[in-house]
Amino acid sequence: EAFIGAIEHSNGALNAYVETTFDKARAQAKASDELLAKGEGRALEGAPLGIKDLYCTEGVRTTACSKILGNFVPTYESTVTANLWQGGAVMLGKLNMDEFAMGSSNETSHWGPVVNPWKAKDSNQALTPGGSSGGSAAAVAADLCLAATASDTGGSIRQPAAFTGTVGIKPTYGRASRFGMVAFASSLDQAGPITKTVEDAAIMLNVMCSHDVKDSTSLDIEVPDFTQFIGKSVKGLRIGIPDEYRLDGIPAEIDALWEQGIAWLKDAGAEIVRITLPHTKYALPCYYIVAPAEASSNLARYDGMRFGYRDPEATSLTDTYELSRSEGFGKEVKRRIMIGTYVLSAGFYDAYYVKALKVRRKIADDFTEAFKSCDVILTPATPSSAFALGDEKKAADPVSMYLNDVFTVTTNLAGLPGLSVPAGLDQHGLPLGLQVIGKALDEGTVLTIASVLE
Ligand code: GLN
């Protein structure tokens, strides 16, 4: 009831929830109360969660914040959310996001932007909570849920976490099932939580991750109890600091925060090693070829025929496709479809798409090589703190928006786990995050390191 009250009070200003499910929440909470009264209770018994609107929820509208799915009510449940309800969690509602998870500011949502609950101490300007999981991050930061699901294709868990002083982890590709998650770029998409603390992230991961025969890329591997890694000693662990992440033009306070993180880990007994990830500078161009290519293919299913928005004026099959897609998709989604179909077209396939796949392999190989001399990698999570909503420069120049993902896309391309942990405030009093990147399937060490930095 406290969370419901908080949502009723603050959601008008923040726009974090696009749909609330209070009746369902009350019914689930009642069942949890009854179990707890009997001395029983599962891992997440009674925990009130918000669900990013790209997880299909049976009988509850799921739009991926696109007009084209504006009337879509799934007849089935995503595996991740099914696991959560099975674990005793309570659903408060569906959370705002960039349309089809394409964006870094939550401004591409059909339902309008989310407002970051944080403000600079010297300005009243409304700030972005980041994206695409902006609703998830804002809801957790503003106490409109205890924790939230999110998803990360190129940084959409970690960047919003960094902008809102929350914890976000993208596990290894394949740890959590993608079944029932609206697809953006299937070889990069991964589910994960946004939480208040590193321990909460471990608790959420325990329940969200599972092997699932309904997702052919889901890993058939045991899910450890991630909470056992919290607060473990970091003595002797080797922390890699990549030279290539020291970028020109990054604010000095981001570098200072990074140095601070390094110092904390050193004090705790870790060993700091310099590493090199030589293909880092190709990561953004590579990502912005691979992700739109896969997106253009995934979004071909929205044809106005089977589900979602259909233009009422259309009189022929071609008109139905053209008008429904023209009106149903927003500007950024159309841009991605155009880039994607271009790089996949016969004349350019080898020059762009195949080349990007080769670069992707090189980026993954860089990590394999680097992890021979370190156990985890520490970097800043984002190149800035939360920026203003309605930033005209970013709106006019999509590449300047894409640059936000400079530190996060590499882990998606390589399939590795990455976490953002709040580590300090900038000169305006806004949160900044540090990113911990781990070896494949080694979320445990990532959580250990993050629990020291927290
Ligand atoms: N900002 C990136 C993009 O727009 C990443 C999005 C994501 O991780 N879903 O593609």
UniProtKB/TrEMBL annotation:
The keyword Ligase applies. It catalyses: L-glutamyl-tRNA(Gln) + L-glutamine + ATP + H2O = L-glutaminyl-tRNA(Gln) + L-glutamate + ADP + phosphate + H(+). It comes from the Bacteria. Keywords: ATP-binding, Ligase, Nucleotide-binding, Protein biosynthesis. One of its GO terms (molecular function) is ATP binding. Its EC number is 6.3.5.7. GO terms for cellular component: glutamyl-tRNA(Gln) amidotransferase complex. Heterotrimer of A, B and C subunits. Allows the formation of correctly charged Gln-tRNA(Gln) through the transamidation of misacylated Glu-tRNA(Gln) in organisms which lack glutaminyl-tRNA synthetase. The reaction takes place in the presence of glutamine and ATP through an activated gamma-phospho-Glu-tRNA(Gln). PANTHER family: GLUTAMYL-TRNA(GLN) AMIDOTRANSFERASE SUBUNIT A, TRANSAMIDASE. This is Glutamyl-tRNA(Gln) amidotransferase subunit A. The lineage of its organism: Bacteria, Pseudomonadati, Pseudomonadota, Alphaproteobacteria, Caulobacterales.
